[in-house]
Amino acid sequence: YDDRIFNDFDSTEYSAGEPEDEGGAVEVSSCSDSMEMTESEMLCAVQMKRMGEDEFQEATVDRYAVDSDDIVLPSEKRPVRLREARVERKKQEALGRKKARALRRANKAMREIVVEEEEEEAVVYRKVFKSAYKKERARRRLV
């Protein structure tokens, strides 16, 4: 911006085209007279202090925002952000073994149970599997 353009903006020369009111000065009201901050504004201020101004802008500005009129191409879509809890490989393997044992037990139990409807069979199988999974415990390992 070239600020020199606005230097003489308040002078009376520029108001020649406007009709003058005989009633007096015009009141200008702002939407908020108080300087109190809401909780969300305070959180943003604290976050900005911690991060720094540039990093705060990067974190809060949505760079994938688009007008509703625009057509969004597949390459411009918002990337999927999956927040998964990191599980160690050993724990994943242990959970997989536990699930496999529970599946075997559930299949064995379902062979003995006779159910007429398929929908009901799925519900019963789920209940049997859940109870078998809960009963499974970590196998003791000799060290």
Shape: elongated
Q: Name the average pLDDT.
A: 75
Strand content range: under 5%
Low-confidence stretches: none
Helix proportion range: 40-55%
Largest sheet: none
- The count of β-strands is 0
**Coarse structural class:** mainly alpha
Alpha-carbon distance between the two ends: 74 Å
Order of helices and strands: HHHH
Question: How much is the radius of gyration in Å?
Answer: 34 Å
Number of helices: 4
Region (Disordered): 1-27
Itemize the secondary structure elements and their pairings.
Elements: H1 39-51, H2 53-60, H3 89-112, H4 118-135
Helix pairs in contact: 1-2, 3-4
Polypeptide structure, described:
It is a single chain. The protein is mostly helical. It has a domain at 90-135. Helix content is 44%, strand content 0%. The chain is built from four helices and no strands. The protein is elongated, with a radius of gyration of 34 Å.
Could you name the key traits of this structure?
single chain; 143 residues; mainly alpha; 4 helices
